[in-house]
Amino acid sequence: MRMFRLLTPLGWMAVAAGVLGVGLLLLGGLGFRWDPFNQTQRRLETAQAQAEVGRLEAEARRLESAAAVQQARRLDQFHQQQTATGRATAAVVEQARSADDAEIPLDAHRAERLRGHDRELCRLAPDLDGCASAIGPAGSREAALRPGGPAV
């Protein structure tokens, strides 16, 4: 009891702080957490949001790589078709030029029928080379630049 009388107010504050510290350590060991500003919940939400962003970015990268593979496959298929078409066309053109009747002029009725087929093709696909409507720099009947309204 004598020891309690010897303590000054500063000593009493030190004892109170020590008891409070030991009490907090004991409560912390028992699982009690004091979080008045809800920092733990905020950290959890931030971590979950970052995980979701990471998952979405990984999904986007997966989709991009799958699309790149599909695009490369389609481009390769297009080039193969273009090469095959070029070879077939070259063979037919060469065969037509070296045919026995290549130098003989067509009769008027047959020539007019072929011109009619050409006109029909140009009507269906006016952007084809050799069609009269494919004269513009844009490859169509429209002007390359369309006039617009005044700038605002």
Our count of helices gives: 4
Count of beta strands: 0
> How far apart are the termini?
92 Å
Helix-strand topology string: HHHH
* Sheet/helix structural class: mainly alpha
Overall geometric form: rod-shaped
Q: Beta-sheet strand percentage?
A: under 5%
Report Rg. 43 Å
Summed over residues and divided by their number, the pLDDT gives a mean of: 82
Q: Would you identify the regions where 5 or more consecutive residues have pLDDT less than 50?
A: none
- Main sheet summary: none
Q: What's the multimeric state? A: single chain
Q: What percent of the residues sit in helical stretches (DSSP H or I)?
A: 55-70%
For this entry, give a set of tags:
single chain, mainly alpha, 67% helix
Task: Write a compact overview of the structure shown.
This protein is mainly alpha-helical. The protein has helices at 2-6, 9-29, 39-97, 108-124. The longest helix is centred in the middle third of the chain and has 59 residues, at 39-97.
